[in-house]
Design goal:
This protein is of the alpha/beta class. The protein is built from five helices and eight strands; from the N terminus they run H-E-H-E-H-E-H-E-H-E-E-E-E. The chain has a single domain, classed as Vaccinia Virus protein VP39 (Rossmann fold), CATH 3.40.50. The protein is about 30% helix and about 25% strand. Helix 4 packs parallel to helix 5. The longest helix is centred in the middle third of the chain and has 13 residues. The termini are far apart.
Length: about 190
């Protein structure tokens, strides 16, 4: 694994250790950041199910203002912390050690919001079913934020849920990136 572009371009990252860790392929990562384009510069970026941190580190390398990494797997957390420290990105990174749903519910009580949210839950359907309602209803999603969901191409996602509307899907073999945009809260008022 490596950082593809930006200030950390070419930096090698430590890879996954342990069962159940599935890093985002470089091809998919390149596509993701092509989709995000210049929106990444200065963005508040939330990396749910961060794993080894390669997506959030790539976001920081490309100009994100701050990245919050959320991960609960102890093996992944060790690698994530090593990668962030190795890249000397500690000042711009926050690591939350809890399940994604718990983090979103806890954060809903604060005023923190994110411009871009990337979620890569395990590919089993129950993980997506757990995440989706919490993500769609949380206040941590800034108006006009982009939410990118990486999931199995076999899993269907709804075209809309709450204030999240599907903009487009990109398929890369067994992996699909579903890109949603968040409508402003007042846009939902009757």
């Amino acid at each position: 694994m490596r950082v593809i572009a930006g200030t950390q371009k070419g930096r090698r990252l430590h890879g996954p250790q342990g069962p159940g860790l599935r890093p985002t392929a470089d091809r998919v990562k390149e596509a993701l950041f092509s989709i995000l384009g210049n929106r990444i510069v200065g963005a508040r970026f939330l990396d749910l199910y961060a794993g080894t941190g390669s997506i959030g580190i790539e976001a920081l390398s490309r100009g994100a203002r701050r990245v919050t990494f959320v991960e609960s797997n102890p093996a992944a957390l060790r690698v994530l912390r090593t990668n962030v420290a190795q890249c000397k990105l500690d000042a711009s990174a926050e690591i939350q050690t809890c399940p994604a749903g718990a983090f979103l519910r806890r954060l809903a009580k604060t005023a923190d919001q994110y411009d871009i949210i990337f979620a890569d839950p395990p590919y089993q359907p129950e993980h997506l079913a757990e995440l989706w309602p919490t993500l769609a209803e949380t206040a941590v999603v800034a108006p006009d934020a982009l939410i990118v969901l990486e999931h199995s191409s076999k899993s269907a996602v709804p075209p809309a849920h709450g204030r999240l509307n599907l903009l487009r899907q990109y398929r890369y073999g067994d992996t699909t990136l579903s890109v949603f945009e968040a409508a402003a809260q007042d846009a939902l008022a009757p």
